[in-house]
Design a protein that fits this description.
UDP-N-acetylmuramoyl-L-alanine:D-glutamate ligase; 9 strands; globular
Length: about 260
């Protein structure tokens, strides 16, 4: 029996964890604002000269390969190794991992650093699992259903919880599987909303079971999208979405989350 997701939200806000994010240029500002609205503390620390040292100070880490470069790649690997060595949770966001050989190599190096959670769209999860994908850069061209088996296999191979996000999100640890049916069609039209979700997952991980924390984080995020759904367009939706993250109570999350265990 899983805890109700509102318990995870309340604990995250009480803890207000420091989340280190090595993310892409596009996502930094949006991601920082979203993490703050949720109740955690973001730090966008990516320089190789300090990334691993800062990981020792942070409570949790995210790594996003959306705009990689050699120096950033080494910072990512060093920070991930530090998190694993110190037993701190970290989340891997394999943006467009199948697009180029450079990204595939970097993805393999990061997988070797034992992420706690891997969060991506269906095409990214298929590519990371070594399977054929129809993905176009950072955009998914495969369905979540098509990636379920790959997600389960990847979880078993790596020991990570794997989250496949889409119209209905899927989370698995290789044994358990959950589906989250919340969300809104406007969400994919906002740049960096997926990248920012990775930071929310990381914040929820602190002192929680990784599977339950990931399910709760995805339900919280997707329900906020539903609450913002009356906005007239993408710009007003982004504002309403951040407000929904800030204003959602644990009780509202418990009442509104549509989570199914498979």
């Amino acid at each position: 029996m899983m805890n109700q997701p509102g318990q995870n939200l309340a604990k995250m806000r009480d803890t207000a964890p420091l989340v280190q994010n090595i993310t892409n240029y596009v996502a930094m500002n949006v991601m920082a604002n979203i993490i703050l609205a949720a109740g955690a503390s973001p730090a966008m620390v990516h320089a190789r000269e300090e990334a691993a040292e800062f990981t020792a100070l942070a409570q949790t880490l995210t790594i996003n390969i959306g705009t990689p470069s050699p120096a950033w790649a080494e910072a990512m690997v060093e920070a991930a190794r530090t998190a694993h060595r110190l037993g701190k949770p970290w989340v891997f966001d394999p943006v467009a991992v199948g697009a180029t050989g450079y990204r595939r190599d970097l993805g393999a190096r990061l997988l070797a650093c034992k992420p706690t959670v891997i969060r991506g769209n269906a095409s990214e999860i298929l590519a990371l699992a070594g399977m054929q994908t129809a993905g176009k850069g950072a955009d998914a061209a495969d369905s979540v259903d098509a990636a379920k088996d790959a997600a389960r296999d990847l979880a078993r191979q790596t020991g990570a919880v794997v989250a496949v996000t889409g119209p209905v999100d899927v989370v698995t640890d290789g044994a358990r599987m959950a589906e989250i049916a919340n969300g809104h069609p406007m969400m994919p039209r906002i740049t960096a909303l997926g990248c920012s979700l990775t930071g929310i997952v990381a914040a929820f991980l602190v002192d929680h079971d990784p599977f339950e924390a990931t399910v709760a984080a995805l339900a919280y995020y997707a329900l906020a999208g539903e609450m913002a759904g009356e906005a007239k367009g993408p710009a007003s939706f982004q504002t309403a979405f951040i407000d929904a993250l800030y204003g959602m109570s644990p009780e509202a999350l418990n009442d509104g989350a549509r989570i199914s265990l498979r």
